[in-house]
């Protein structure tokens, strides 16, 4: 069958806030045929079926195990809580299915590595939905980095007044986005990390979760980054900056009309006076990152080739970094190796 017209039969697990966006994009893709939608809530399934005008060919199921038994199924997309990922991904891969999994892949690097190994054994693709890596501004930034010279340091802020999670802390909820972007731009991952945080909000289950976290990342090249994370902050911030020796790159989602800016300029060698100053806004194509991610997943399945952008290995590296940051957080900010 022509790979340009072949449809991939897919089941989608979980239609919460993010799963609903994922379903919308899967339904819109001409080479994805959604055969089942899974969610434990019957009411939620009814709402989804009405919202998206799903016909009788799409099974509405409360059990992901039942979805794996659908004849002709080729792939699954998983947008369930991270604690469920290991079991669902394992079962899907053992059924010879390709897997698109919401981040984080799992909650430990060891379990993530095991899933990558299983995917290789089964000759199936394990693709992680790190949507920011498919954001047109992030992709354009990587293409323009060579204009700025040697990367020196970076900083990011991801804060807002809510939403507050009750299952993970602000670190696991928010940090993965900015770390993934820094790693992607640098083509590397940090060797050592540090995290410190504070807990203010009192939850009914008495779980102590950090509501604000400051992270530091050290890379082998000498590049360092600082990330500020908080879900109890009055200012909504979604900004990431990389400072290089000939200028800086600024990605600011709160400026949707011009999210990517190059601030060119450097310090003169003898007097250290600023020279060559200019600001350039980079044109960004109007495309939804999640739609681009779905297209990459489709191509990965059709060619049975691992993604160079967001494979299971990339997802595993990010889980290992989060694990190391959690260890640092629990050790009052000690520097922890990611190796």
Automatic annotation (TrEMBL):
One of its GO terms (molecular function) is nucleotide binding. Gene3D superfamilies: Dihydrodipicolinate Reductase, domain 2 (3.30.360.10), NAD(P)-binding Rossmann-like Domain (3.40.50.720). Residues 8-130 form the Gfo/Idh/MocA-like oxidoreductase N-terminal domain. It holds the Pfam family GFO_IDH_MocA. It comes from the Bacteria. Residues 169-249 form the GFO/IDH/MocA-like oxidoreductase domain. InterPro entries: Gfo/Idh/MocA-like_OxRdtase_N, Gfo/Idh/MocA_Oxidoreductases, GFO_IDH_MocA-like_dom, NAD(P)-bd_dom_sf. This is Gfo/Idh/MocA family oxidoreductase. It comes from Adonisia turfae CCMR0081.
């Amino acid at each position: 069958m022509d790979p340009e017209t072949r449809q991939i039969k897919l089941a989608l697990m979980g239609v919460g806030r993010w799963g609903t966006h994922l379903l919308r994009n899967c339904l819109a893709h001409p080479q994805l045929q959604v055969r089942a939608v899974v969610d434990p809530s019957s009411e939620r399934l009814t709402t989804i079926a009405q919202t998206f005008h799903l016909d009788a060919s799409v099974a509405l199921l409360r059990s992901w195990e039942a979805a794996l038994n659908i004849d002709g199924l080729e792939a699954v997309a998983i947008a369930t809580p991270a604690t469920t990922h290991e079991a669902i991904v394992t079962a899907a891969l053992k059924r010879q299915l390709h897997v698109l999994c919401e981040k984080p892949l799992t909650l430990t690097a060891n379990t993530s590595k095991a899933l990558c190994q299983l995917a290789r054994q089964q000759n199936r693709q394990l693709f992680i939905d790190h949507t920011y890596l498919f954001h047109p501004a992030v992709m354009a930034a990587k293409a323009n980095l060579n204009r700025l010279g040697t990367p020196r340091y970076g900083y990011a802020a991801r804060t807002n007044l809510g939403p507050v999670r009750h299952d993970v802390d602000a670190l696991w909820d928010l940090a993965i986005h900015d770390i993934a972007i820094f790693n992607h731009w640098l083509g590397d991952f940090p060797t050592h990390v540090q995290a410190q945080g504070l807990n203010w909000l009192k939850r009914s289950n008495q779980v102590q979760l950090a509501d604000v976290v400051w992270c530091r990342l050290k890379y082998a090249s000498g590049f360092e980054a600082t990330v500020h994370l908080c879900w109890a902050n009055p200012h909504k911030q979604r900004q990431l900056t990389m400072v290089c020796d000939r200028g800086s790159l600024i990605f600011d989602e709160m400026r949707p009309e011009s999210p990517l800016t190059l601030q060119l300029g450097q310090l003169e060698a003898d007097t250290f006076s600023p020279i060559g100053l200019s600001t350039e806004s980079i044109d960004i194509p109007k495309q939804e990152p999640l739609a681009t991610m779905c297209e990459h997943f489709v191509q990965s399945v059709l060619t049975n080739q691992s993604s160079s952008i967001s494979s299971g290995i990339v997802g595993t590296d990010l889980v290992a970094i989060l694990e190391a940051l959690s260890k640092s957080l629990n050790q009052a900010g000690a520097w922890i190796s990611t190796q």
